[in-house]
Amino acid sequence: MKNIRENIPSLKATPSFRISFIQTELPDYYAPWMNVAANLPHLIEGHQLRREVMPLLSTQYLRGHRQLRLARLALGFITMGYVWQGGGRQTVKILPRALAVPYCTISELLDLPPILVYADCVLANWKKRDPCGYVENLDILFSFPGGDSNKGFFLVSLLVEAAAAAGIKAIPIIVNAILHHGLCSLETALQDVALSICKMREAFKLIHGKCLDLIAAWKDNFLMPEGLVYEGVWDSPKQFFGGSAAQSSTLQCFDVLLGIQHSWGSVPRFSAEYLGCMRDYMPAAHRAFIQTLASGPSLRQFVLATGDAGLHAAFNKCVSALADLRSYHIQIATKYITIPAGRCRAEQQQLGGCVHKGTSVLSERGTGGTGFMRFLKAIRDTTRKAQLTEQ
Ligand SMILES: Nc1ccc(Cl)cc1-c1cn[nH]n1
Question: What is the pTM of this model?
């Protein structure tokens, strides 16, 4: 029996969701980027970052995907720090060419938008303190001010993604089982998916007390209504969404696998369209995998057609595990993301900022805010409704 990966070319390119080792260094030529990125918390807290003179470096000495991802990570952190150094009080309208030109060049090569995304600050932003040690001795490569809180947020998110790996690796087995009517292997693989999603929720519990900021968007953001000018790249300002868990490839993989289609949420600007846009903020290989999965056979229809009680139960366990993970995400967002956004709105009002209803810098995109919460609840409720009803 040929493995499914042979049958569907894109699945051969299944991205490696297991923790493979990350590039942690670039050629010395790129020391100006790496030194500033490594010193970001100090530069931001001292309001020195925008005074840093950055040379315009060529990207021609970057070799391979991993060096491109690391260079993009460093430039992404520097860009977020440069834009939000003033905490939203003194935003900038122009990203200088020394940052904008290489950042956009590398982003185009990687088919990612020139803004820090989940795949940067979670999937590419880690190393093992002791290369020979266990996976738990993790550290991040770059951070914003906020010390261990930022670090914890990124590393816990990484552990959530690592927990998803077993479930993602079961997907080609599931598709293969559908194509070859392998009911036993299908039920076992579905149990692996459900267990993997449960482990994601367990890992997510470690996020308590951690927080994240400085990933705000310059799209639908009243502090940057036109967006950001990328000097030397585009003449007009461009708008891009900020980092969010909606950019997690693993969650969208499980949605597609289980046939969960998020309809238009109650909040128009948070909707199936927004989730679709988020695929453009994922690594190209992850995007291709999701698209291939979406164009493959329907697991939901197959399980229904078999009328097999074991498959029915195993499928529903996957759905309920995903709904429980999303419920937990709502608890966390309420406690650690929305409230700071509320404080942010209060601060803006004190500063006389024109706080539009519900659109503070942390309220409507990515993290925080009532619109975001209604969106998360709409997604969680749609997930719950995906349970197969009693036969
Ligand atoms: N866990 C995350 C990791 C990275 C980024 Cl950029 C965003 C989040 C996030 C936002 N809301 N819930 N999680």
Answer: 0.85
